[in-house]
Amino acid sequence: MLAVALTACTAARLAYNQAPTISYWWLDAHVDLDDVQATEARDALDQFFQWHRRNELPVYASRLREWQALANSDLSPTQVCAQFEDVRERIERAADQTVDPFSRLALQLTPAQLEHLQRHQKRGNEEFEKDFLRGDPEQRLKKRLERATSRSEMLYGTLSQEQRMLLRQLIQASPFDAQRTQAERLRRQADLLQTVRDAQAAPARATQLVREHYVRVNRSPTPGYEAYQRELVRQGCTQFARLHNSTTPEQRAHAVRVLQGYEDDFRVLSAQR
I want to staple 239 with a disulfide (CB 3.0 to 4.6 A). Which of 163, 170, 190, 218 is the partner? Predict the structure, then answer.
Protein backbone atom coordinates (compact mmCIF):
# COMPACT_ATOMS: atom_id res chain seq x y z
CA MET A 1 0.00 0.00 0.00
CA LEU A 2 2.81 2.40 0.86
CA ALA A 3 4.44 1.72 -2.50
CA VAL A 4 1.17 2.41 -4.32
CA ALA A 5 0.66 5.59 -2.31
CA LEU A 6 3.91 7.00 -3.66
CA THR A 7 3.32 6.54 -7.40
CA ALA A 8 1.56 8.87 -9.80
CA CYS A 9 -2.16 9.15 -9.12
CA THR A 10 -3.15 8.75 -12.74
CA ALA A 11 -1.13 5.51 -12.86
CA ALA A 12 -2.67 4.05 -9.70
CA ARG A 13 -6.02 3.11 -11.23
CA LEU A 14 -4.39 1.63 -14.32
CA ALA A 15 -1.85 -0.29 -12.23
CA TYR A 16 -4.49 -1.66 -9.88
CA ASN A 17 -6.76 -2.73 -12.71
CA GLN A 18 -3.80 -4.52 -14.25
CA ALA A 19 -2.70 -6.00 -10.90
CA PRO A 20 -4.04 -9.53 -11.58
CA THR A 21 -2.06 -9.71 -14.81
CA ILE A 22 1.07 -8.18 -13.26
CA SER A 23 0.82 -10.56 -10.31
CA TYR A 24 0.48 -13.49 -12.69
CA TRP A 25 3.64 -12.43 -14.54
CA TRP A 26 5.46 -12.14 -11.19
CA LEU A 27 4.37 -15.64 -10.17
CA ASP A 28 5.16 -17.14 -13.56
CA ALA A 29 8.63 -15.59 -13.49
CA HIS A 30 9.28 -17.37 -10.19
CA VAL A 31 8.08 -20.89 -11.03
CA ASP A 32 7.38 -21.08 -14.79
CA LEU A 33 3.74 -22.18 -14.58
CA ASP A 34 2.41 -24.86 -16.90
CA ASP A 35 -0.90 -24.41 -18.74
CA VAL A 36 -3.10 -25.96 -16.04
CA GLN A 37 -1.33 -24.07 -13.26
CA ALA A 38 -1.58 -20.86 -15.25
CA THR A 39 -5.35 -21.16 -15.57
CA GLU A 40 -5.78 -21.90 -11.88
CA ALA A 41 -3.41 -19.07 -10.92
CA ARG A 42 -5.29 -16.53 -13.03
CA ASP A 43 -8.59 -17.59 -11.49
CA ALA A 44 -7.17 -17.38 -7.97
CA LEU A 45 -5.67 -13.95 -8.61
CA ASP A 46 -8.95 -12.66 -10.03
CA GLN A 47 -10.76 -13.89 -6.91
CA PHE A 48 -8.15 -12.34 -4.63
CA PHE A 49 -8.36 -8.92 -6.25
CA GLN A 50 -12.15 -9.00 -6.24
CA TRP A 51 -11.99 -9.60 -2.50
CA HIS A 52 -9.29 -6.96 -2.09
CA ARG A 53 -11.16 -4.35 -4.13
CA ARG A 54 -14.35 -4.95 -2.14
CA ASN A 55 -12.91 -5.28 1.37
CA GLU A 56 -9.54 -3.52 1.53
CA LEU A 57 -9.64 -0.53 -0.79
CA PRO A 58 -12.39 1.23 1.20
CA VAL A 59 -10.23 0.84 4.31
CA TYR A 60 -7.21 2.21 2.46
CA ALA A 61 -9.27 5.20 1.34
CA SER A 62 -10.30 5.89 4.93
CA ARG A 63 -6.69 5.69 6.10
CA LEU A 64 -5.64 8.10 3.37
CA ARG A 65 -8.26 10.56 4.58
CA GLU A 66 -6.79 10.28 8.09
CA TRP A 67 -3.27 10.76 6.74
CA GLN A 68 -4.33 13.98 5.05
CA ALA A 69 -5.28 15.38 8.44
CA LEU A 70 -2.03 14.15 9.96
CA ALA A 71 0.00 15.68 7.14
CA ASN A 72 -0.86 19.20 8.24
CA SER A 73 0.69 18.76 11.70
CA ASP A 74 3.99 17.71 13.17
CA LEU A 75 4.22 13.99 13.88
CA SER A 76 5.86 11.95 16.59
CA PRO A 77 7.61 8.64 15.87
CA THR A 78 4.91 6.97 17.96
CA GLN A 79 2.19 8.32 15.67
CA VAL A 80 4.07 7.15 12.59
CA CYS A 81 4.64 3.68 14.03
CA ALA A 82 0.94 3.39 14.87
CA GLN A 83 0.13 3.98 11.20
CA PHE A 84 2.86 1.55 10.13
CA GLU A 85 1.42 -1.13 12.41
CA ASP A 86 -2.03 -0.59 10.93
CA VAL A 87 -0.65 -1.02 7.40
CA ARG A 88 1.27 -4.13 8.46
CA GLU A 89 -1.92 -5.66 9.84
CA ARG A 90 -3.77 -4.94 6.60
CA ILE A 91 -0.98 -6.62 4.63
CA GLU A 92 -1.15 -9.69 6.88
CA ARG A 93 -4.92 -9.78 6.41
CA ALA A 94 -4.48 -9.74 2.65
CA ALA A 95 -1.73 -12.36 2.81
CA ASP A 96 -4.06 -14.66 4.72
CA GLN A 97 -6.32 -14.73 1.67
CA THR A 98 -3.50 -16.24 -0.38
CA VAL A 99 -2.78 -19.22 1.88
CA ASP A 100 -5.20 -21.63 0.21
CA PRO A 101 -4.24 -20.92 -3.42
CA PHE A 102 -0.53 -21.02 -2.61
CA SER A 103 -1.05 -24.30 -0.76
CA ARG A 104 -2.67 -25.80 -3.85
CA LEU A 105 0.14 -24.52 -6.05
CA ALA A 106 2.80 -25.90 -3.70
CA LEU A 107 1.39 -29.38 -4.21
CA GLN A 108 1.62 -29.02 -7.99
CA LEU A 109 5.19 -27.75 -8.36
CA THR A 110 7.60 -30.10 -10.09
CA PRO A 111 11.33 -30.55 -9.33
CA ALA A 112 12.09 -28.57 -12.49
CA GLN A 113 9.90 -25.70 -11.28
CA LEU A 114 11.63 -25.68 -7.89
CA GLU A 115 14.98 -25.45 -9.70
CA HIS A 116 13.54 -22.55 -11.71
CA LEU A 117 12.50 -20.88 -8.43
CA GLN A 118 16.01 -21.32 -7.03
CA ARG A 119 17.54 -19.69 -10.10
CA HIS A 120 15.10 -16.79 -9.76
CA GLN A 121 16.01 -16.44 -6.08
CA LYS A 122 19.70 -16.40 -7.00
CA ARG A 123 19.15 -13.54 -9.46
CA GLY A 124 17.27 -11.59 -6.79
CA ASN A 125 20.10 -12.15 -4.34
CA GLU A 126 22.61 -10.88 -6.86
CA GLU A 127 20.51 -7.74 -7.34
CA PHE A 128 20.37 -7.20 -3.58
CA GLU A 129 24.13 -7.63 -3.36
CA LYS A 130 24.63 -5.16 -6.19
CA ASP A 131 22.37 -2.59 -4.54
CA PHE A 132 23.40 -2.94 -0.91
CA LEU A 133 26.69 -4.81 -0.52
CA ARG A 134 28.98 -3.66 -3.33
CA GLY A 135 31.10 -0.55 -3.32
CA ASP A 136 32.59 1.34 -0.41
CA PRO A 137 30.42 2.66 2.47
CA GLU A 138 30.04 6.06 0.82
CA GLN A 139 28.81 4.54 -2.43
CA ARG A 140 26.28 2.36 -0.61
CA LEU A 141 25.10 5.34 1.43
CA LYS A 142 24.67 7.37 -1.76
CA LYS A 143 22.43 4.70 -3.29
CA ARG A 144 20.26 4.50 -0.19
CA LEU A 145 20.02 8.29 -0.04
CA GLU A 146 18.95 8.48 -3.68
CA ARG A 147 16.13 6.00 -3.04
CA ALA A 148 14.99 7.74 0.14
CA THR A 149 15.05 11.14 -1.56
CA SER A 150 13.08 9.89 -4.56
CA ARG A 151 10.39 8.33 -2.35
CA SER A 152 10.15 11.42 -0.18
CA GLU A 153 9.86 13.78 -3.15
CA MET A 154 6.97 11.75 -4.55
CA LEU A 155 5.07 12.74 -1.42
CA TYR A 156 6.42 16.20 -0.57
CA GLY A 157 7.80 17.54 -3.83
CA THR A 158 11.38 18.77 -4.11
CA LEU A 159 13.39 18.55 -0.90
CA SER A 160 15.69 21.34 0.17
CA GLN A 161 19.43 20.85 0.57
CA GLU A 162 18.95 20.93 4.33
CA GLN A 163 16.33 18.18 4.13
CA ARG A 164 18.61 16.05 1.97
CA MET A 165 21.35 16.47 4.56
CA LEU A 166 18.90 15.47 7.29
CA LEU A 167 17.98 12.33 5.36
CA ARG A 168 21.66 11.52 4.94
CA GLN A 169 22.26 11.85 8.67
CA LEU A 170 19.25 9.69 9.49
CA ILE A 171 20.30 6.98 7.04
CA GLN A 172 23.82 7.02 8.45
CA ALA A 173 22.35 6.49 11.93
CA SER A 174 20.17 3.59 10.76
CA PRO A 175 20.84 0.14 12.25
CA PHE A 176 20.30 -1.38 8.79
CA ASP A 177 22.80 -4.19 8.23
CA ALA A 178 22.82 -5.36 4.61
CA GLN A 179 24.68 -8.59 5.36
CA ARG A 180 22.27 -9.49 8.14
CA THR A 181 19.31 -8.66 5.93
CA GLN A 182 20.72 -10.74 3.09
CA ALA A 183 21.21 -13.69 5.46
CA GLU A 184 17.54 -13.44 6.42
CA ARG A 185 16.54 -13.35 2.75
CA LEU A 186 18.46 -16.58 2.23
CA ARG A 187 16.79 -18.15 5.26
CA ARG A 188 13.33 -17.24 3.97
CA GLN A 189 14.11 -18.61 0.53
CA ALA A 190 15.34 -21.91 1.95
CA ASP A 191 12.28 -21.98 4.22
CA LEU A 192 10.00 -21.56 1.21
CA LEU A 193 11.61 -24.43 -0.67
CA GLN A 194 11.46 -26.67 2.39
CA THR A 195 7.82 -25.73 2.97
CA VAL A 196 6.94 -26.85 -0.57
CA ARG A 197 8.79 -30.15 -0.09
CA ASP A 198 7.13 -30.73 3.30
CA ALA A 199 3.70 -29.96 1.82
CA GLN A 200 4.24 -32.42 -1.01
CA ALA A 201 5.31 -35.07 1.51
CA ALA A 202 2.19 -34.43 3.62
CA PRO A 203 -0.55 -32.97 1.36
CA ALA A 204 -3.16 -33.00 4.13
CA ARG A 205 -1.01 -30.50 6.06
CA ALA A 206 -0.21 -28.22 3.11
CA THR A 207 -2.40 -25.32 4.23
CA GLN A 208 -1.04 -25.44 7.78
CA LEU A 209 2.55 -25.59 6.52
CA VAL A 210 2.11 -22.59 4.21
CA ARG A 211 0.47 -20.61 7.01
CA GLU A 212 3.37 -21.44 9.32
CA HIS A 213 5.79 -20.30 6.60
CA TYR A 214 4.02 -16.95 6.47
CA VAL A 215 4.41 -16.61 10.22
CA ARG A 216 8.16 -17.27 9.94
CA VAL A 217 8.43 -14.64 7.21
CA ASN A 218 6.78 -12.04 9.44
CA ARG A 219 8.49 -13.14 12.65
CA SER A 220 11.85 -14.67 11.97
CA PRO A 221 12.98 -17.59 14.15
CA THR A 222 16.60 -16.44 13.76
CA PRO A 223 17.83 -15.41 17.24
CA GLY A 224 17.94 -11.64 17.55
CA TYR A 225 16.46 -10.91 14.14
CA GLU A 226 13.01 -9.92 15.39
CA ALA A 227 14.60 -7.38 17.74
CA TYR A 228 16.66 -6.10 14.80
CA GLN A 229 13.47 -5.72 12.74
CA ARG A 230 11.75 -3.82 15.54
CA GLU A 231 14.70 -1.46 15.78
CA LEU A 232 14.61 -0.90 12.00
CA VAL A 233 10.93 -0.02 12.23
CA ARG A 234 11.50 2.27 15.19
CA GLN A 235 14.29 4.08 13.37
CA GLY A 236 12.19 4.27 10.21
CA CYS A 237 9.35 5.89 12.13
CA THR A 238 11.79 8.40 13.60
CA GLN A 239 13.23 9.12 10.16
CA PHE A 240 9.80 9.72 8.66
CA ALA A 241 8.68 11.92 11.56
CA ARG A 242 11.80 14.05 11.52
CA LEU A 243 11.69 14.59 7.78
CA HIS A 244 7.97 15.37 7.89
CA ASN A 245 8.48 17.84 10.73
CA SER A 246 11.07 19.65 8.61
CA THR A 247 8.64 20.21 5.74
CA THR A 248 7.26 23.60 4.75
CA PRO A 249 3.54 24.44 4.51
CA GLU A 250 3.88 24.14 0.74
CA GLN A 251 5.40 20.66 1.00
CA ARG A 252 2.66 19.54 3.39
CA ALA A 253 0.03 20.89 1.03
CA HIS A 254 1.69 18.86 -1.73
CA ALA A 255 1.47 15.75 0.46
CA VAL A 256 -2.21 16.38 1.12
CA ARG A 257 -2.90 16.66 -2.61
CA VAL A 258 -1.05 13.40 -3.29
CA LEU A 259 -2.93 11.58 -0.54
CA GLN A 260 -6.24 13.07 -1.67
CA GLY A 261 -5.56 11.82 -5.18
CA TYR A 262 -5.04 8.31 -3.87
CA GLU A 263 -8.09 8.46 -1.68
CA ASP A 264 -10.14 9.37 -4.74
CA ASP A 265 -8.51 6.59 -6.76
CA PHE A 266 -9.19 3.95 -4.13
CA ARG A 267 -12.82 4.99 -3.75
CA VAL A 268 -13.34 4.82 -7.51
CA LEU A 269 -11.58 1.47 -7.73
CA SER A 270 -13.51 0.00 -4.80
CA ALA A 271 -16.80 0.92 -6.51
CA GLN A 272 -15.83 -0.92 -9.69
CA ARG A 273 -16.80 -4.55 -10.04
Answer: 170
